[in-house]
Specification:
The protein has eleven helices and ten strands. It has about 260 residues and is an alpha/beta fold. The chain folds into two domains: about 140 residues, Rossmann fold; about 70 residues, no CATH class. The strands form two sheets. The chain has a six-stranded mixed beta sheet, sandwiched between helices. The chain has a four-stranded antiparallel beta sheet with strand order 2-1-4-5, covered by helices on one side. A hairpin with a 2-residue loop joins strand 1 and strand 2. The two termini are about 25 Å apart. It binds adenosine-5'-diphosphate and magnesium ion. Adenosine-5'-diphosphate binds next to helix 2. The site of adenosine-5'-diphosphate has 10 residues, from helix 2.
Length: about 260
Amino acid sequence: MSMTNSYIFGKSEKKIGGRLLKIDQLISGYGSVQILNGANMKVEKQSIVALLGGNGTGKSTILRAASGLIRSWKGTIEFNGEQIQNLPAHEIVGKGLVQVTQGKDVFPAMSVTENLKLGGFILKSKQQLSDNLEKVYNYFPRLNERKDQLAATLSGGELQMLCIGRGLMSNPKMIMLDEPSAALAPQIVLDIFKNINRIRQDGLTVLVVEQNVRMALLLADYGYVIKDGVINVEGDSKKLMYDESVKESYLGGTKANV
Ligand SMILES: Nc1ncnc2c1ncn2[C@@H]1O[C@H](COP(=O)(O)OP(=O)(O)O)[C@@H](O)[C@H]1O
Ligand SMILES: [Mg+2]
């Protein structure tokens, strides 16, 4: 773990090691429009990896392909030693790879607890379901306070916590977060990122897509930058923070959210 994130988010005791996700020469898109032009990336077990890049460059498309929401046209996606490209989405969840979407999977007219229970749809026993609920409430005491409220009444930050909590309900090995900081106040982002770091310390692996490049590089161990559907820059987060091309594109203060 780098000095920067251990300083801000707390020290990690566990060692990073072994590959969990490997995306190789991935080509995908929508209809006949190709968006990913041979994307490559790797995520080590128990690391936090940031996937960065401008608007519309294909970040969410990579996550959608990995979680089986869209087809991979070519290339491979290997998770935990198995090829998973084009498996049905629920099978990918069953293998322990879960995507946290930005509020889209939350049912506004259902309570916080009911929404969380839906996230545990693959669990076999009631005991597991209640254990996992307890685990999520332990990460996010705020959700516990609001557990009987309808999701529609939650603030933006609480809704993001619910989305992450929902993703944790199925006992994933790895979660993929799509812009968890979007539209949130800095103090709330810090709180959520601290929780993401805690989740990793408890053994999970995290891939986080972010437009908030500075915060993402503080949180992550390693980063990738995607441009035109190809990942063309990668490195340790600390190194990327000082990388001229990254600085120029994302840290110059001219882009939003930096
Ligand atoms: N459902 C869709 N149908 C057609 N085009 C899409 C769809 N979703 C995204 N796109 C296009 O694919 C490109 C990459 O989108 P996306 O991966 O969502 O970008 P981002 O890096 O902002 O997450 C964009 O040009 C976007 O307009
Ligand atoms: Mg996106």
